[in-house]
Amino acid sequence: MNGEMTVVMDGERMADTLRRLAREICADNPDIESLALLGILKRGRPLADRLAGLIGEMSGVTPPVGSLATTLYRDDLRAGVGQVKFDGGATHFDFALDDKTVVLVDDVLAAGRTIRAAMDEVMDYGRPARIQLACLMDRGGRELPIQPDYLGEPVGAKPHEYVSVRMVETDGEDVVVLEHRSTPDEGGE
What we know:
189 residues, alpha/beta, Rossmann fold, 5-stranded parallel β-sheet, 3-stranded antiparallel β-sheet, globular
């Protein structure tokens, strides 16, 4: 990274935000037994694990959690444009999706293309009753008409700013920073 960084969410605020998101998910889904969370790799998975734990504490039922690796479902890969970036993870879950309410969990929502890819992948594995979206941060810059059902916070990043979510499980700390770069970049997602 080649610029200054601004902390937009510290660990305590992240924990509070995840508790709020878990409460909202519980309130909107009284039948917790039919709920499943799929974390979009890489940082969506630990967020999904944390949310499932909080939902379990609040409701007495911990929903199952799985992982989605959306790289092969990206439209820019199929079109032969862009750079293929594998996060080293693979799609994995050991439960059926049919008739479930599937909550896709991701760290940063930007253009919406990752979420569209995740929905395509989910539909290849089954037919959920519905799909919801939970994101920790929304950086703006949507290219597709996709909005989260559950949102931690909007950040409104500019094209030359990158929203970086760091988590204990992957990075050794819980913090969200806005990185100011000297050249425009995709900025997350």
